[in-house]
């Protein structure tokens, strides 16, 4: 049976093969960069221990192996920040200046609770263009007990015994929950001494550096007591 | 069958029907599946009488290290090796597939495999997939035409060059290679250069890390050194080891299974997790 080719074709004809509307969403410029890294703080009676790695990164590149994430604001409290470094610098500058003014006007340094509240108000003042910072404020309260305040990017804060922020947060926080609070343990043996807790913190950073590419180089630890501030720096993986 | 030929001719070279299907699927809410990338540094260096290839050993899934010591140097033939960067699953399966294909060919023809055969087969497979098979390979080997080194990109492009680097750390490694490569290197010099290039990738690219693997292929055979360099041991060991005594984890429910009666029963109360 003879089937005219052109008649056949009209049954198979498709629309002209058009390349799908590949709408390339132009990469819009973003004012935010995640410089990553991990910070953690633990409060014990008599002291507070704050630690942060010293690696500054952008994507897969290392910008600095020696950049501090910790900032001592008063004799008794330290700000530890993970997130965008530029915003950390800006926030630190504001807090340092405002606390200096407080000291001039009140002839005494601001207490940790006061600084915590100040930080929260400053973060919320930028509610609609936030500081890309994930903060921990660690310090000694009026009784020289160590306290830690954890923040989100827009200033919601809460007092805790320990806190972790940054790219290694998920890796570390579960370990601290188990070791420092005895989660999932019946008989909880919670370390009390400074040395034991320092041991755990160093191990946490070492483990975070193993599995998180953004954490590494060095870990810087500040120990605040009523007597003063002590600084320890330990090496971490450099790859 | 004339009508069939005419139909195919009018249809055109590429079939875009799947594009519409993909759009429809996306509109229905299907998400493109994410895949594990290796985030790698791999290099190849040609020397007098053979070829050297080296790779780091870190596999990443996003920003987490999935494998601290994976193998990125794969055998394609006894005289041809491949270093792979890109999606881990694709690399493993494609290299295994071509290994088998070449072996079959060798059994059929009773001839040694050649590097340009591998390149042709690979690029023929990769091009139609438009880069969706995420393998970026450096192929090095020695055959009847001498030592050869080539790189293949996921879209099917290939380049022959005396030194190559691929992966996220390729720029770091390329800096070292461009500065220090010369023609007429000895085997040991080429190995040292390759290791130095991988080192640059390991320390300056965060997608690469851990150790260095090296393979040197000459007429006399293959010299594979797994973990020839190990730089980054775990930096801290806890003084007091973690203590997890037995029977210290609270159970929410406890069941008992009686094997003889084949019965499951709940035994013991629900224990409240104390926080």
From TrEMBL, chain A:
- Subcellular location(s) of the protein: Nucleus
- Would I find Cytoplasm among this entry's keywords? yes
Q: From the record, what ranges are coiled-coil? A: none
Q: Which UniProt keywords apply?
A: Cytoplasm, Proteasome
Q: Name one Pfam family in it.
A: Proteasome
User: Its GO biological process terms?
Assistant: proteolysis involved in protein catabolic process
Q: Name one GO cellular component term.
A: nucleus
Q: Which InterPro entries match?
A: Ntn_hydrolases_N (IPR029055), Proteasome_sua/b (IPR001353), Proteasome_suB-type (IPR023333)
Q: What protein is this chain from?
A: Chromosome undetermined scaffold_12, whole genome shotgun sequence
Q: In the record, what lineage is assigned to the organism producing the protein?
A: Eukaryota, Sar, Alveolata, Ciliophora, Intramacronucleata
From TrEMBL, chain B:
- Reaction(s) catalysed by this chain's protein: Cleavage of peptide bonds with very broad specificity
Q: Name one GO molecular function term.
A: threonine-type endopeptidase activity
Which Gene Ontology biological process is one annotated for this entry?
Answer: proteasome-mediated ubiquitin-dependent protein catabolic process
List the Pfam families: Proteasome
Q: Which domain of life is it from?
A: Eukaryota
What does the UniProt keyword field contain?
A: Cytoplasm, Hydrolase, Nucleus, Protease, Proteasome, Threonine protease
The family database entries (InterPro entries) matched by this protein are listed as: Ntn_hydrolases_N, Pept_T1A_subB, Proteasome_bsu_CS, Proteasome_sua/b, Proteasome_suB-type
Annotated active site residues, numbered on this chain, are 40 (nucleophile)
- From the Swiss-Prot or TrEMBL record, state where the protein is found: Cytoplasm; Nucleus
Question: According to its UniProt record, where is this protein mainly located?
Answer: cytoplasm
Query: GO cellular component terms?
Result: cytosol; nucleus; proteasome core complex, beta-subunit complex
Subunit structure and binding partners: Component of the proteasome complex.
Q: What does this protein do?
A: Component of the proteasome, a multicatalytic proteinase complex which is characterized by its ability to cleave peptides with Arg, Phe, Tyr, Leu, and Glu adjacent to the leaving group at neutral or slightly basic pH. The proteasome has an ATP-dependent proteolytic activity.
Q: Which family does it belong to?
A: Belongs to the peptidase T1B family.
Q: State what protein this is by name.
A: Proteasome subunit beta
The species is Paramecium tetraurelia
């Amino acid at each position: 049976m003879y089937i005219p080719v052109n008649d056949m074709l009209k049954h198979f004809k498709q629309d002209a093969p058009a390349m799908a509307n590949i709408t390339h969403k132009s990469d819009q410029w973003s004012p935010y960069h995640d410089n990553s890294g991990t910070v953690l703080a633990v409060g014990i009676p008599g002291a507070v221990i704050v630690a942060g790695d010293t690696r500054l990164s952008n994507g897969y590149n290392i910008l600095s192996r020696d950049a501090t994430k910790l900032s001592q604001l008063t004799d008794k409290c330290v700000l530890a920040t993970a997130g965008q470094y530029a915003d950390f610098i800006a926030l630190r500058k504001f807090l340092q200046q405002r606390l200096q003014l407080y000291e001039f006007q009140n002839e005494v340094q601001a207490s940790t609770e006061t600084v915590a509240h100040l930080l929260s108000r400053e973060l919320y003042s930028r509610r609609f263009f936030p500081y890309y910072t994930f903060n921990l404020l660690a310090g000694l309260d009026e009784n020289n007990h160590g306290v830690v305040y954890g923040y989100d990017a827009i200033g919601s804060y809460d007092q805790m015994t320990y806190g972790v922020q940054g790219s290694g947060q998920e890796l570390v926080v579960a370990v601290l929950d188990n070791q420092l609070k005895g989660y999932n343990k019946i008989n909880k043996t919670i370390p009390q001494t400074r040395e034991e807790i320092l041991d755990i913190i160093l191990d946490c950073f070492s483990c975070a550096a193993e599995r998180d590419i953004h954490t590494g180089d060095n870990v810087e630890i500040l120990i605040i007591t009523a007597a003063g501030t002590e600084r320890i720096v330990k090496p971490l993986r450099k790859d | 069958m004339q009508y069939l030929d005419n139909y195919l001719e009018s249809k055109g070279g590429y079939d875009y029907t799947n594009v519409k299907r993909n759009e429809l699927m996306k509109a229905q809410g299907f998400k493109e599946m994410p895949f594990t990338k290796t985030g790698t540094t791999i290099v190849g260096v040609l020397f007098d009488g053979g070829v050297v290839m080296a790779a780091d050993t870190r596999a990443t899934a996003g920003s987490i290290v999935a494998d601290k010591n994976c193998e990125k140097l794969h055998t394609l033939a006894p005289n041809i090796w491949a270093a792979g960067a890109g999606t881990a699953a694709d690399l493993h399966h494609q290299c295994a597939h071509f290994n088998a294909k070449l072996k079959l060919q060798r059994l059929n023809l009773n001839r040694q495999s050649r590097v340009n055969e591998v390149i042709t087969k690979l690029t023929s497979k990769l091009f139609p997939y438009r880069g969706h098979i995420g393998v970026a390979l450096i192929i090095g080997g020695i055959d009847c035409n001498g030592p050869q080194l080539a790189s293949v990109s996921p879209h099917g492009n290939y380049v022959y060059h005396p030194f190559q680097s691929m992966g996220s750390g390729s720029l770091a490694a390329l800096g070292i290679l461009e500065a220090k490569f010369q023609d007429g290197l000895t085997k040991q010099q080429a190995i040292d250069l390759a290791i130095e290039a991988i080192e640059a990738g390991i320390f300056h690219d965060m997608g690469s890390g851990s150790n260095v693997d090296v393979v040197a292929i000459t007429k006399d055979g293959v010299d594979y050194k797994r973990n020839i360099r190990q730089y980054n041991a775990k930096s801290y060991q806890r003084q007091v080891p973690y203590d997890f005594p037995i029977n210290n984890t609270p159970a929410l429910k406890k069941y008992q299974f009686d094997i003889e009666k084949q019965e499951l029963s709940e035994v013991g109360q629900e224990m409240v997790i104390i926080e």
